[in-house]
Amino acid sequence: MAPGPAASTSRATAPAPVSASTAELASRLRFAVMRLSRRLRQHAASDVTQSQLSALSVVVREQRLTLSQLAEAERVQPPTVTRIVESLVHQGLVTRVPCEQDRRVAWVEATPRGRALIDGIRRRRDAYLARRLATLSPDDRALLERAAAVLERLTGDPEP
Known about the structure:
Blueprint: H1 5-10, H2 20-41, H3 50-62, E1 65-66, H4 67-74, H5 78-90, E2 94-98, E3 106-110, H6 112-134, H7 138-156
Antiparallel strand pairs: 1-3, 2-3
């Protein structure tokens, strides 16, 4: 008798071996993404560190979250996120709001100044990238549009 669906899903499958061409593609892609990321960071024009910008971006996107949620989103330990948030509070970019139900919990919210900083950086980075994309052929831009969807899947999926 053939195993049913439950039996087939309970077996662990070994990851497929990585071919030399896949390993080479991974290396080229990593290098290109790192260089692009570095170029985009150069368009931040801010005294805020990359760790602080990253945390502030999450706070702006989520609008309101706890320190624990921010630590999880940033994949850092709670003491690290506490230091980052304290610095952002000191710079007037976020506020800490005590939770009404549990005074041990604090919500983090972006200030108008924090939102404006992130919006400005995003606009400058998007403008830089748009200028670079405008130099490409329509075929290359169409290829990058498809690649963007693939990259979004790569970054959105949990690690295998």
